[in-house]
Here is the input.
Amino acid sequence: MMRYLAYALCLLFTAISLALSLRWPGWGWSAAVFGALSVLGTVDLLQIRSTLRRNYPVLAHFRYGLESVGPEIRQYFIEGDTAEVPFSRQQRSLVYQRSKGVMDVVPFGSQQDVYGLDYEWINHSMAPTQVDSHDFRIVIGGESAQPYSASVFNISAMSFGALSANAIRALNEGARRGNFYHDTGEGSISPYHREKGGDLVWEIGSGYFGCRDEQGRFDEARFVENACTPQVKMIEIKLSQGAKPGHGGVLPAAKVSAEISATRGVPMGHDCVSPSRHSAFSTPMQLLEFVARLRELSGGKPTGFKLAIGHPWEWFGIAKAMHESGVLPDFIVVDGAEGGTGAAPAEFIDHVGVPMHEALLLVHNTLVGLGLRERIRIGAAGKIISAFDIARTLALGADWCNAGRGYMFAVGCIQSQSCHNDRCPTGVATQDPSRWKHLDVADKSVRVQLFHDNTLKALRDMLCAAGLTHPQQLGPEHILRRVSPIEVRSLAALYRYVNPGELLSGVPEHAVFQNFWADARSDSFAAPSKVRALQESKS
Here is the structure.
């Protein structure tokens, strides 16, 4: 049968090569090659785990080989320049150009369909402004003992372990050069974070890496040891993340090296899995008490939390706890479900969590409605690459933006989508020293700085074109979106914005508030009784 032809030919050529090699030794190489293929085919026939290999000995491996390079074939030869899967060639090229400091202008008109649904733009002014500096900053923790002046564009949470030693070095040195911050991710502060001296935001997840005892519980003494170092500028408690909300972090065993084991305090040879929930608190009020305790232990450094929005009553419970107790985080980072550098099950990446735009709006609206927005800063992350991405996010309600994969592109990532198997071809997301040692820190750190610098220059130019002088002046009225071939709406018209203090005197005419605000509790994350009733009945 034809499906055995490749195997039969390997056997035949092996026999012929062996016969010829008896007279001409040069044929020995041919005998070795076809002999190895014959052995492979024989193994295929005898094994029972793969029906495909039994039915197509030898030939099945060509299929596996082609499948393994499928992402690269699609990325370089098939996908269009604007196909975002997950980032388009156009987006990646923009990062590469800006990180290298080469020309990033586009000839011959936009590749975007300006009459297509969801096309967005910012209106320009007949009276443009002139702003000399592009170093736009926002003060976080103005009421704390050690407030921090942050750039409006920073490096999002990516742990050592998920990223290589040299990638961490390059990111942190780039942050130091550009005077912006580098979020450690939940994998704790590694020696490579400390080496270059760039500003750090220490993210503490449910595994309490870097501040845990032998049982994996939060340890105050170990926290103080790290938190009080001058390089750590802010403390961020991770409640959930966009890549896998509600799932906890996952670092495959293959990437848990001796260094990661020492940095995180976990054993080698096992998957490093963060619990899906914290053990240091279990209610909204306890969360805020934990925030206040960490702020105190760190010497008054700005302390807040990061979350991907899920059940709205849980976020409302936190908001009510703020209002009732007066205990406030200095900041909240909203992570969109479209974001994330971490590996996660496909269902979590594709279908769990609220996308960044809606999540950001909910957090912003709630704080405005409680009269707390001016006292709590909001950061946001979720596929932010360009100056327009930053402008749109700030217009929706954020104070600053974080980016993870954008900065990965700046240090050389080519979107091979092999972050999870330790085979990253560019040495960015691997613990294999034969790969990551070829990532040149001196060169890539400059690229990180240039990407940040050139993106903020582009943001400045956009602001000037719109007649503005600082990103804080951006509002939803500045961003326009096409909603049909003949209709355009500003974000201010598309989204319902809550009036200042509106939640203090009633419930806004806004569906999510109407449905869940009244039943949310500051002492519990539990679902409201009406939701539990629905969960217990299909009628």
Notes: The first helix runs from residue 5 to 21.
